[in-house]
Amino acid sequence: MAPDPPSVVAVRRDWLNSPFAPSYSGLNRYLHHEPKEIVQNNNKRLTDSDLRVEVWVTREKGVCMPRSVHITHRSYLRTSLITHGTACTYRADCTSHLAIESQSARSIRTIFLPYQVKAEGNLNSSVYDGIVYVTHSPPESGDHPEPLKKAIQGLAKIDDEAKELGAVVEVALPARRLVYSPTGKINREYHDVRSFSEAAGRGIKRALKAGVKSPLLVLTSHERFKQSEVVTLLGALEALYVPIQFREDVPSKSIKVKELGVWSKDFTKTQEFVNLAKILESGRYVARDIGGGDPERMAPPRVEEYVKEIFAGSPIKIEVISDPNKLDKEYPLFSAVDRAARVIERHRGRIIYLTYEPAGLVTETLFLVGKGVTYDTGGADIKAGGVMAGMSRDKCGSAAVAGFMKVRIVKFGFCITKGMRSFRKLLQIFVSYDFDSKVISALKPKDVKVVAAMSMVRNSIGENCYVADEVITSRSQARVRIGNTDAEGRMIMADVLCYMKELAASSVNPHLLTIATLTGHAVLTVGSGFSILMDNGPAREVDNSRKLRAAAEEYGDMIEISTIRREDMAFHKGKSEGDDVHQSNNLPSSRTSRGHQSPAGFLILASGLDKHSLDSSNPLKYTHIDIAASAGDLPNEPTGAPVIGLVAHFLQGRF
C-alpha cells in the first residue's frame, strides 16, 4: 500500500477486520494522487489548517477498500451537533464510496446505499440503460407517461398476459430497454399497497437479468394508496440489497447497480420520495445486516462491533454490558440463557443500550427491547428433527431495534442549522454528498427520546446450560420457574424490560415495547408477512395498536392485532409454592393454546409491569410485537420489519 499522504488525507491500514468490505475498482487510482492537490484543485482557498479530509481505507488482495470518510472544517464548530475536541466532524456512515476522477473527489456514498439514488427529471436522460416502469394501469390505458405510451400500448396488442406478467420491450429513448412491471388489479377492498413494492422488486430483478446497470425507476401515484410512490421505491431498494457476508466475501459483487434514478411526473415530489425512502431504507439495511448474518458473523461480540461502527460519530450513546458478574447480578434471567455460551469468548452474550437524547423539550419517551438470539439450539430442550435450521434469524428483534435507531439518527442526528448551509456549499465544492436542501431544512431533532436495548445471546447446549425446573429470581424479584429452555427469548428480554420500566417511571410520557421473533404460533395465526401487536391496558386505552397498524400499512409494513387476556396472565402464574411466575409449558408454542399471546403475559409478570396497569397509580404503556411471521425466514432475506411501521407511527409528523 502507498505510504500515508500528508495531513489533508490520512490512510489507515488497520481496519482489515472491519465488518464492512465492499470495493470499487476506481479506488485503486486513489493511491496515486496527492491528497493536497485533490482539495486544492477544487478550491484553492482551502488549506490544510482550514480543512481536513480523512479517508480511511485498506488494501486486501490488491483491492482498495474504503472504510469511512471524515470531513472537518474548523470554522463551523458551533453549527453541528456532533463535535470532537476542537473540530466539527461530519462522517459518512461506515463504509463509503470515494470515486476519483481527474484528481477530484466526486462523491461520497454511505454503505447503506452503496450506489447513488437520485431524483431524475428527464425520461430522455442518456445516463440510464434501462427503465423500470411500475404501474397499476393496464397496457391499453392512456395513463402512461407519453414517452412510454407507444411501447406499452404496442405490447398490449401482441401479449394478453403482459398486464399480469409484465414484459421487456424496446422503447424509443436513450435507455432503449423498458421493463414493464404491473401491479395487477388492485381495486378490491382486500388489496393493499404491497402490490407496488412487489411489482418494483420483480421489475428490478428482471432488469438486472436483462443486463441493466443503471436503471431508471418510473413511479406512478394511486388515489387510494397515498404512499404508493415511496413504497414502490422501497421495493426497488429491497431488491438491490446484497447480504452482508456476500458483500464481504465477494467484494466484486457487493453492488448490483451503478446508480438508480427515480422519475415521476412531479420532480419536486420525486425528490421528497427519494429522500424519505433512503432514510427508511437505511434502517432496513441495518436490520437486514444484523438479522441476516450467520451465527458467527453476527455473534454477540461482532454485533457490538457492527453497532459501534454504524453509530460512530452520531448522537447515539452506546453502553454495552458484557461482564458476567454484572449480568448475573442485574440480569439473572438473561444470564441463565447466556451460561452455556459464555464459556466460548466469541459467543459471550451482551446487552447493548442505545440512547438518543433530543435537543428540544421531550414530550415522549420510547423504550425498545429487542430479542437478539444469534442462534437458538433450544438449549437443553434441544430443537430436534431438523427444526433448528434457520435459527440464526432469531435475532431479528434486536436487528429491528438497531434499524429503528439508525433511521432516527439519519433523520434527526445530523442537524444542519442556518449556519451550516455555507458548510454544505463548501463541501459541495469538492464532494457531492447526496444532500437535498429541503431535507436539510427538515432535519431538526424533535421531541422524542429513545432508549433501545439489544439483548444479544446465543442459546447454546453444554455442561453449563440452564435447564427446566430451575427457579431463578428475576431483576423484579419475581421467582421464575423454568419450564422449557427453548423459551429463551422471553427470558433475555424480561430483566431488560424491568430495567426499562424503572427508567420509565420517571420519564416523560413513556411507552415500552418488546420486539421479538418469539413464537411459531404467530406464524400459524397470521401467516407469513405480518407482525402481531399486543397492547397492555394503558396502551390499549390510547388506541396504540390500531393507530400503529394504520400508519404502518400505508407503507406496506403489515400488522395484525391480538389482545392480552386474563388467560394469558393466569397461564404464567406460579404453579408451585414459592413460585411467582411459570416461564413456559414444555410444548412448542404452535401446540399451545394462545401460544403467541401468553408470552406477553410472562413479560408483564416477570418484569413487574403488572404493577403498572390501568388501576395503578403509575400506569405504563406497553406493547409486545411478535415478528416471527414478518421478519423473513431462510432462504429469503430478512425484511427489516417492523422498522418502517415504527417510524411511521412514532416519528411521522416529526419528519
From TrEMBL:
<keyword id="KW-0031">Aminopeptidase</keyword>
<keyword id="KW-0645">Protease</keyword>
<dbReference type="GO" id="GO:0030145">
    <property type="term" value="F:manganese ion binding"/>
</dbReference>
<dbReference type="InterPro" id="IPR011356">
    <property type="entry name" value="Leucine_aapep/pepB"/>
</dbReference>
<keyword id="KW-0378">Hydrolase</keyword>
<feature type="region of interest" description="Disordered">
    <location>
        <begin position="574"/>
        <end position="598"/>
    </location>
</feature>
<feature type="compositionally biased region" description="Polar residues">
    <location>
        <begin position="583"/>
        <end position="596"/>
    </location>
</feature>
<dbReference type="Pfam" id="PF00883">
    <property type="entry name" value="Peptidase_M17"/>
</dbReference>
<feature type="domain" description="Cytosol aminopeptidase">
    <location>
        <begin position="484"/>
        <end position="491"/>
    </location>
</feature>
<dbReference type="GO" id="GO:0006508">
    <property type="term" value="P:proteolysis"/>
</dbReference>
<dbReference type="GO" id="GO:0005737">
    <property type="term" value="C:cytoplasm"/>
</dbReference>
<comment type="similarity">
    <text>Belongs to the peptidase M17 family.</text>
</comment>
<dbReference type="InterPro" id="IPR000819">
    <property type="entry name" value="Peptidase_M17_C"/>
</dbReference>
<dbReference type="GO" id="GO:0070006">
    <property type="term" value="F:metalloaminopeptidase activity"/>
</dbReference>
<protein>
    <recommendedName>
        <fullName>Cytosol aminopeptidase domain-containing protein</fullName>
    </recommendedName>
</protein>
